[in-house]
Amino acid sequence: MIEAVCESIPLPGGDVEVARPRDAESLLSEESFDHEEFLPYWAELWASGVALAHDVSMRSLRGKRTLELGCGLGLPSIAAARAGGRVVATDWSRDALRAAAANAERNGVAVETLLCSWAAPAPIVERRPWDLVLASDVLYERRNVDQLLAVLPRLVDERGLVLVADPGRPPAADFLDRAACDWHVVSRESRRVPRVSIHRLRRRV
Ligand SMILES: C[S@@+](CC[C@H](N)C(=O)[O-])C[C@H]1O[C@@H](n2cnc3c(N)ncnc32)[C@H](O)[C@@H]1O
Question: Could you give the number of structural domains in the chain?
Answer without folding.
Answer: 1
